[in-house]
């Protein structure tokens, strides 16, 4: 048996999220369906770096699975891409050692969030960026981001439904850059809790609207309660951009 | 009655083209449907700069219609955008004199064609650029484009089904530029025949593949027969980019 690592992208618009669910179209369901075909009807379990919600996109999601098929990496890409639906694509395939795990070996992850700032809605980005045509004080948002960097208990910045107990995470980088009318927010961290990036974005937007002062971020973190942070930004602006492993 | 000019964009993926057809979802059908609502059930005829085929996009299609409603231009944008489906958006509204006509007043039009040149298919551009992962000699394509500039009989470069007799058109500009893995081809002319841009693109692609020599373009024009030009490039890479009028 060989362990295969795949880097995939998907357009989240047509999926009820990454994780397999009965009677729903999911990324995992589609991917495992293709592997079943390739393995003559045998089920192959796929492991991802993590889940993504409905309408959340991936530019560089990472999966692994074990296979007895003797196919070279370049042929894997062609074979998978010819069988996968057109809203999932494989960009990279590589054989890994048995101790590699798409989820447990993760060192850091990068998410990006795109905001379309043009006045009227843009038909081409309607599913790929959050349309927010109002004023934003970007310098204040950058100042606020400084308070989020480093190691914190992010209880205030995750869904109240989060079941995991350890909410301490480290954010290495937050970067905001604009190109034409599009604002992109980049988040790199050792891990992110449920809805965490979308709540960080929603809160930074409220900072940009001058509803929240940058220095209040420190207090919101200390409160350890979801009710103090901003709204959860919509799913369709979010991209799982890159997953990093030791190599 | 006031004559209103609208600049609209649409994602062509969900339409059976611009022009209204029974039992099909069309841009004109959706737009006229919104105007009927705004005019208390009265039908309002919309005139466009020209038709676009199924899956062809518009970044700057121009329409006009006559109305008795006394709405200022900025309110027209908001009203139309709130009623139109999310794959059609109005970017500009302006009152015009009665002698303005979206089709007959056109001075020139710009079309763009996008080609995605990355090796593996890209899920995010699958409906918005033609995926062509093969070698292209861009310099030869630019050389070939020079032979297309100016005033010619473009019979060889329009659909054999074209009914219009006068196939003489003037192309003012053809520009090819690359950004990341995307090649954009810009065409500006006084008018374009049925399928003309897609056949020009398909032919230039064959020049890029070195199947056709740049100087052969001159001969293809002279043959005045569709069979000598290249294939018709797919619709989903094409954008009606801008329509220009005297002002």
TrEMBL record, chains A, B:
Binding site for substrate: 111
Chemical reaction(s) catalysed: uridine(38/39/40) in tRNA = pseudouridine(38/39/40) in tRNA
Gene3D superfamilies: Pseudouridine synthase I, catalytic domain, C-terminal subdomain, Pseudouridine synthase I, catalytic domain, N-terminal subdomain
UniProt keyword list: Isomerase, tRNA processing
Enzyme class per UniProt: isomerase
Protein family: Belongs to the tRNA pseudouridine synthase TruA family.
Protein name: tRNA pseudouridine synthase A
